[in-house]
Amino acid sequence: MRINNRMLDMVLAKKCFSLSYLRKGGVSPQTIAKVRKGKDITPLTVGKIAAMLGVDVTEIVEQEAYPRNCIRPSTFGRIAKALNVDPVDLIET
């Protein structure tokens, strides 16, 4: 899971907290660095951070437009074109 930095910053601002609040609450500097770089962290850690801030997890996580196991329509079209096939021929039934 990824935490949305903009949303995290808004929650921190609303609560008048800084990132040091998370460090004092037990979140490691390495984890905070991962969050700031937009890298995945464990759902457990996301839950702990949300609980520390008194918000629901959905208020701070990235909302993916497409699930990770799905291909975006534009990518799907490019793949079909590169293979010189009709996109319909690539769909599993």
* Total tally of structural domains: 2
- CATH architectural name of the largest domain: Orthogonal Bundle
Order of helices and strands: HHHHH
User: What gross morphology would you assign?
Assistant: elongated
User: What is the CATH top level name of the largest domain?
Assistant: Mainly Alpha
Number of E-type strands: 0
Strand proportion, as a percent range, falls in under 5%
Terminal CA distance: 30 Å
Structural class: mainly alpha
Number of helices: 5
| Fraction of helical residues | 40-55%
Sheet with the most strands, sense and barrel status: none
Contiguous uncertain segments of 5+ residues? none
CATH topology of the largest domain: 434 Repressor (Amino-terminal Domain)
What value does the Rg take, in angstroms? 19 Å
Report mean pLDDT, rounded to a whole number: 86
Q: Can you offer a commentary on this structure?
A:
This protein has 93 residues and is mainly α. The chain has two domains: 5-59, 434 Repressor (Amino-terminal Domain), CATH 1.10.260; 65-93, no CATH class. The protein contains five helices and no strands. The radius of gyration is 19 Å and the shape is elongated. 6% of the residues are buried. The model has no long low-confidence stretch (mean pLDDT 86).
